[in-house]
Amino acid sequence: MHNTHPQFIVLLGPPGAGKGTQAERLSGALAIPTISTGEMLRQEGRSGSLLGAQIQTLLDAGHLVSDELIQKVVAQRLAQPDCRQGCILDGFPRTATQARFLDQLLAKMGFGAPIVFDLAIAPEELVARLSLRRQCPLCDRTFQVLPGAIETCPHDGASLVPRPDDAPETIRRRLRIYADHTSEIVRFYQNRGYHRINASQPADHVTSKVLGILGNAPAGTNGLKRPVPASQHLSALSPVAH
Ligand code: AP5
Questions:
Q1: Ligand 1 and 128: CB distance under 6 A
Q2: Residue 2: inside a domain, yes or no?
Q3: Domain residues for 198?
Q4: How far apart are CA 162 and CA 112, in angstroms?
Q5: How far is 130 from 166, CA to CA, in rounded Å?
Q6: Which residues have a catalytic role annotated?
């Protein structure tokens, strides 16, 4: 699918909903880059800088970094030429303050509001998914592993490791923090480009659903064909719509 107008796509959803998985697939299908704030922060965490060390402490504990810091990072990234045709925002915005900032930033750049996909899934499924997630320390790719299977990266042979913030207690904290911000952020986006997607479906189905909605969006807008009824704007952790 080729872009005829810039598309700024926001992927909302709790930890483990599949934002990163879908971002990668959509990026390939739409030929626009992904901005993953979690990944950018993890890279800074590994950089050895003082700021990186401070960020890593927050990430490992499952806390959010400040709005001010992440907004600066995103503004710098969105200003890069490869974002002129749009991009996929994986993990940003995460607070209503960040959502307002993004609207203002896109407007300053001459773009409309983003189209938003809220990947909704039950918490127990998330915990199961994240406890089976492993990451390659060399290439950063993530994998679902089968219990008892050999856990090495098929690309570079490195031993796969759990993400530090995938410890059960940290997952619970991340889910709580996500839930604290969800209703406010959904209220912000409701009635304008907001789509709730059932993220417990296989990844292929989720991608098709999103691409189908994007394909139906009228040209020249960032997305919404029809308003979403207020009754669908429930917590992202409750049963789902599309
Ligand atoms: P981030 O990296 O964004 O973490 P997250 O939001 O907790 O999300 P995850 O990466 O855990 O999950 P995901 O939804 O991407 O799912 P995935 O595709 O990997 O952020 C990390 C931290 O950075 C935050 O905690 C915070 O500290 C900080 N941060 C980031 N952004 C910030 C911001 N804007 N403001 C402040 N702080 C910020 O999938 C999970 C697993 O499930 C994978 O193994 C995958 O293979 C599998 N899977 C995916 N889809 C499916 C499917 N449909 N069916 C079966 N399995 C699937």
A1: no
A2: no
A3: 7-223+230-237
A4: 38
A5: 6
A6: 19, 94, 133, 163, 174
**Nearest partner of 96 among 203, 15, 186, judged by Cα:** 186
Q: What CATH number did the domain enclosing 79 receive?
A: 3.40.50.300
* Degrees, nearest 5: CA angle 106-93-127: 155
pTM for this structure? 0.88
Q: Pocket of ligand 1, candidates 22, 36, 37, 146: which has the most ligand atoms within 8 Å of its Cβ, to mutate?
A: 37
**Quick check: is 63 in a domain?**
yes
Tokens for 183, please give them. Answer: 């209703």
Q: Is residue 1 part of a domain?
A: no
Domain count along the chain: 1
pLDDT tens profile 70-119: 999 999 999 999 999 999 999 999 999 999 999 999 999 999 999 999 99
Q: Which pair of structure tokens corresponds to residue 190?
A: 């409701």
Q: Please tell me if the CB atom of residue 185 comes closer than 6 angstroms to any atom of ligand 1.
A: no
Ligand 1 site, residue 222, Cβ cutoff 6 A = no
Pull the structure tokens for residue 65.
Answer: 């970094």
